[in-house]
């Protein structure tokens, strides 16, 4: 069933009279007829079957209008507002008319305003989501960059020099889990640390692992420390590769 607001011939008498008034006035304006004052309002009430525009006729259109109220706006102001409402096809519903008059005569305007409001809300939500996603991406990149820096600095540490690295990076904004993963991979590079079994590395807290590394470094011989240093990357070669 087609809703009344979508019907080709509006079933609501007020709405039908408004459509007829628009067609009548526009037809007369094309033939250079003089329209006089408030042509849309006068035509509207004529199609409503009113020979004159009195207070009772206005009340039929706007239920909020109270003819007995002494401080009410003048009849001329109501007629002028009705004329503007119809001539703008519901785009301008001015005081003293209530908003319900515009909604009843031109329901499609309210529907379009609601759709525009929903679209604005959707666009606003999308913009907020995009801003939040961009902020999260920037945060992730900063974190990955920081983690990469920690990994590079750790690569140039031996068991005897890693203590300073650990003291520095445990105070930074990296997750302890990520620091642990870096340390576990770093330990496997050194022959002197081969005795660290997998269970110990995976299930002991990082501070316990680092305590054992430092204890080992304090007890190792000069030759063992020399072998550990051989496992470090060559800084000069690394710089030459980066700057050919």
- Write down the overall mean pLDDT: 83
The Rg value, from CA coordinates, equals: 41 Å
Q: What is the percent of helical residues?
A: 55-70%
The largest β sheet comes out as: none
Low-confidence stretches: 1-7, 235-244
Beta content:
under 5%
Based on helices, strands and strand pairing, what is the structural class?
mainly alpha
Q: Please state the overall shape, judged from the principal axes of the Cα atoms.
A: rod-shaped
DSSP summary, beta strand count: 0
Our count of helices gives 12
Report how far apart the termini are: 77 Å
Order of helices and strands: HHHHHHHHHHHH
Number of domains: 2
What's a quick, concise take on this entry?
This protein is mostly helical and 244 residues long.
Features:
244 residues, mainly alpha, 2 domains, 12 helices, rod-shaped, disordered N terminus, disordered C terminus
Explain what you see:
With 244 residues, the chain is mainly α. It folds into 2 domains: 4-105, no CATH class; 146-242, no CATH class. The chain has helices spanning 13-30, 39-47, 55-61, 75-87, 99-105, 107-155, 162-169, 176-187, 198-203, 206-219, 222-230, 235-242. Helix 1 packs across helix 2 (39-47) and helix 6 (107-155) packs parallel to helix 8 (176-187). The chain is rod-shaped, with a radius of gyration of 41 Å. The two termini are 77 Å apart. The model is unreliable at 1-7 and 235-244 (pLDDT under 50).
Write the layout of secondary structure elements.
Blueprint: H1 13-30, H2 39-47, H3 55-61, H4 75-87, H5 99-105, H6 107-155, H7 162-169, H8 176-187, H9 198-203, H10 206-219, H11 222-230, H12 235-242
Helix pairs in contact: 1-2, 2-4, 5-6, 6-8
